[in-house]
From TrEMBL:
Protein name, entry field: Leucyl aminopeptidase family protein
Annotated GO CC locations: cytoplasm
Keywords of this entry: Aminopeptidase, Hydrolase, Manganese, Protease
Organism: Thalassobius vesicularis
Similarity comment: Belongs to the peptidase M17 family.
Amino acid sequence: MTMTFAAASSDAIPVHVLESDALPAWLEAQPTPVQNWVRASGFKGSLGKSLLIPDANGKPVAVLAGYGSADQRKRGRFHLAAVAAALPEGIYRIADGLPEDMAQEEALGWLLSAYSFGRYHKSHGSSARLVAPEGVDAPRLEVIAAGERLTRDLINTPANDMGPRALEQAARDLAASHGASIKVTVGEDLLAQNFPMIHAVGRAAAQPPRLIDMTWGDTGPSLVLVGKGVCFDTGGLDLKSSTTMGLMKKDMGGAATVLGLAHMIMSLGLNLRLRVLIPAVENSVSSNAFRPGDILTSRKGLTVEINNTDAEGRLVLADALALGAEGQPDLMLSMATLTGAARVAVGPDLSPFFTDDEALATSLSAAATRVADPVWRLPFWDPYEADLEPGIADLDNAPKGGFGGAITAALFLRRFAGDACRYTHFDIYGWSPSSKPARPKGGVGMGARALLEALPELLGI
């Protein structure tokens, strides 16, 4: 189903958004048949519940959308998306009752309720289309929904159809649709152009590793987005168990998210110079796989002792971050499904981020609240830097002890981002483990909408 708003129509079915406490007064103002119908149905205005009201011929003429209470709404988001998912095909409009400050969020949620991943079997999201509520920026929300669709589709596609080659093609398709430039460095050319750790991680796979480099825009401040593109992660020679390997098609969630965000930025024509860097690899097992105990030399010249081949994401990101930092951008962001420690810390819904920039952290957190894309700041905790230094090399890719794993991974990346630019790292999950309004089980974007909202303030555009 299309993820766009419907054109205004006199036939659009009105939706009355009703908090539980407002239902009695609303009912008193209705004709007796409507009162009887609502009471007989047991509708109480509960959050996310809906009721179709028919005319004498059984044709739906209105919808009641339960909006619960303010306290209940704090426990979730996109509440009208649950209503949309329960409605029959048709065109609907919000008639009354929706708080003005919730219109953007609920309108976007309604759009996202139409999403389904139907590449391998017939699957449909909500077919209830909404006329854009008055006061919302409908074109912007449609762009955001399209970027989210791209992210979800890429993550949901299994590795047999979304390996490094297919991820490259997705980036090429996106570049072509926006007039962006793209350069891809593949296989042995990675060594020739000094991306040794990307090559080392991906060399054992059937499809050769590559670095995708997309650029767009000629004016304004410069923004670099770096996304982890590990299309499948076996763990390498430190092999994962079948339980933990089962979801590793989503290990390119960082790449999928920055591509979705890039679509939003380019579609909206933001006045900035954008660069997207994606190291695209599979971490596989073969005779030439990199090994525990190996010492790799990075693009930046720092040496890295490999104490766990399953801590590969930070290695490929390191070379890409070093390249991005060489251009001294105004802002550089990395997004990666990097550590299980981040999930233990904040669960699957929150996007933890790391930054040394207090103003950036404040701006980003406020933006995330405005667009219902929650983030949570974790620290670049300098005292843990010593844990990264094994003694035999400059850095350890997997410090022993198990404490603060998300923090030590972020500190590792910061070494390669350097001091030449403002840098922020997101350790996202990229997956909804259960279906929620506007977020079906499967791949999901995290942090992109918050960043899009914050970029004008962060970059002064």
